[in-house]
């Protein structure tokens, strides 16, 4: 393979990374706005998040077409092929996080009649952690930063612990006051969605490791059942 071809492939892979960064930015906004909608009871913002789902689908399809085209035209091998396939896997994970953000946003309209100041504070703290995980792992993907990716993966245990804490708090609220059962059930649902979003961030971290090394991390990632 001549030097010009190598350069062209490198440039095209950089363009692919740019497309995925755009998709990641949309998912970051969806997750952030979904949480804001729930916390501030903003039904209009929640509907905007739901509407962005179609845009996310279009971006995912565009990324997949770009990857298939690149693999076919350049007959990619080795690390170049791993990077292209990793991009496709990252797109899938981002799509799933977008789905979770949409699910959270859709809960907003169900909560308008509930007093939920304590619940929203807990969910907001967990949401900030997951949003930070998402931003860091997307930066790690753009910069091919294995060290940061592995740190994101390691911190997934914190997300699991947050979920377990919220679950216990909500169960206590429901036992103490039956009038809070409806609201607490919704908040437990949303906390679970955030926990799953954290899992997808960890999976992106593992994809980064595979893309750069050819192997997945040697140690197993803790699951919520292990916490």
From TrEMBL:
<dbReference type="GO" id="GO:0030643">
    <property type="term" value="P:intracellular phosphate ion homeostasis"/>
</dbReference>
<comment type="subunit">
    <text>Homodimer.</text>
</comment>
<protein>
    <recommendedName>
        <fullName>Phosphate-specific transport system accessory protein PhoU</fullName>
    </recommendedName>
</protein>
<dbReference type="InterPro" id="IPR026022">
    <property type="entry name" value="PhoU_dom"/>
</dbReference>
<keyword id="KW-0592">Phosphate transport</keyword>
<feature type="domain" description="PhoU">
    <location>
        <begin position="21"/>
        <end position="108"/>
    </location>
</feature>
<comment type="similarity">
    <text>Belongs to the PhoU family.</text>
</comment>
<feature type="domain" description="PhoU">
    <location>
        <begin position="123"/>
        <end position="208"/>
    </location>
</feature>
<dbReference type="GO" id="GO:0005737">
    <property type="term" value="C:cytoplasm"/>
</dbReference>
<dbReference type="InterPro" id="IPR028366">
    <property type="entry name" value="PhoU"/>
</dbReference>
<keyword id="KW-0963">Cytoplasm</keyword>
<comment type="function">
    <text>Plays a role in the regulation of phosphate uptake.</text>
</comment>
<keyword id="KW-0813">Transport</keyword>
<dbReference type="InterPro" id="IPR038078">
    <property type="entry name" value="PhoU-like_sf"/>
</dbReference>
<dbReference type="Pfam" id="PF01895">
    <property type="entry name" value="PhoU"/>
</dbReference>
<dbReference type="GO" id="GO:0006817">
    <property type="term" value="P:phosphate ion transport"/>
</dbReference>
<dbReference type="GO" id="GO:0045936">
    <property type="term" value="P:negative regulation of phosphate metabolic process"/>
</dbReference>
């Amino acid at each position: 393979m001549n030097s010009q071809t190598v350069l062209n492939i490198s440039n095209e892979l950089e363009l692919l990374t740019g497309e995925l960064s755009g998709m990641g930015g949309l998912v970051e906004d969806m997750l952030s706005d979904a949480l804001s909608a729930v916390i501030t009871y903003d039904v209009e913002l929640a509907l905007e998040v739901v509407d962005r789902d179609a845009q996310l689908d279009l971006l995912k399809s565009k990324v997949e077409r770009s990857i298939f085209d690149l693999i076919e035209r350049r007959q990619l091998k080795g690390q170049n092929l791993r990077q292209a396939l990793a991009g496709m896997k990252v797109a899938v994970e981002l799509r799933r996080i977008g789905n979770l953000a949409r699910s959270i946003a859709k809960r907003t309209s169900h909560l308008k009649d509930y007093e939920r100041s304590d619940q929203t504070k807990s969910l907001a703290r967990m949401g900030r952690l997951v949003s930070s995980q998402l931003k860091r792992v997307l930066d790690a993907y753009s910069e091919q930063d294995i060290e940061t990716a592995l740190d994101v993966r390691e911190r997934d245990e914190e997300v699991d612990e947050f979920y377990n804490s919220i679950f216990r708090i909500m169960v206590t609220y429901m036992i103490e006051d039956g009038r809070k059962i409806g609201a607490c059930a919704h908040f437990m649902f949303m906390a679970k969605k955030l926990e799953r979003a954290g899992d997808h961030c960890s999976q992106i971290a593992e994809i980064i490791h595979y893309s750069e090394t050819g192997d997945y991390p040697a140690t197993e990632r803790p699951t919520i059942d292990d916490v």
